Protein: DUF481 domain-containing protein
Amino acid sequence: MAENTRLKLIFCTLLLSLFSFLQKANAQIVNIEEERVKRDSSNYLTGKIGLDFSMYNQNAGENNPNNYLQLTFDGDIAYFSKQHSYLLLNYVNYLLVNYTSSSQRNAVASTGYSHLRTNLFRKRKLSYELFAQVQADKARGLELRTLGGAYLRLEILRNKENVDVFFGTGLMHEHEEWEMPEEEDIIRTSDLLKSTNYVSAKAKLNENVETNAIVYYQTGYAESIDKFRNRVSGDISLSVKVYKSLTLKTGFTCVYEDEPIVPVTRFVYSITNGVAVQF
Structure:
């Protein structure tokens, strides 16, 4: 009996550790298709909020404990008028290490974005999008990224056997500020006019299960290196409704940049699990 109890404890510990790892990974790809809904009515507001909080300590000595605190907020809101739609997407992840009332608070990783998008004449086969975004990813050294631009959005499939497919192409201006790795107070900046393109797909598998994916390709000519900077990113997610407005979500995101502004990992990815409340 004691051996069975130990095995159960080990299994639970591994499961919780895996879930904690998946919760903390993030690559910050904005999947706009997740927030578009299928309704024939107009003039309504919808949204969802997710919040995750964790705190734990791992003792590195009697007088030198390692304390961790993490807070993750995910909040999206959308308004759909008769002809247009308006999306506001927000994500913040803040991690503190050695967080105690008597010790210095050291932020080792904070990431987040706020994305605003308008889809004009959303029901037409060819519609128009305007967007703006503010983003930071201090874990990778990205102090600030701001961008704004416009898309032409073309309907490939709409609600054909519960499947939607769209293609978008447009232009944007991107401003970035990166901190040089292992060098304090050295910031490199970049301002580029970029071509930005995406293909998105959304499928409702049954009444409770839905999946959606989006792939971006963005490129712009950088005079500082006399070549194009290319970025490919993607996001795929699966949502399972378990009870009324409560949904379980899992997803995979990745980003590849062939010419990063500072020497950082060119390919990054993340796997996430979470819970969302729809309203």
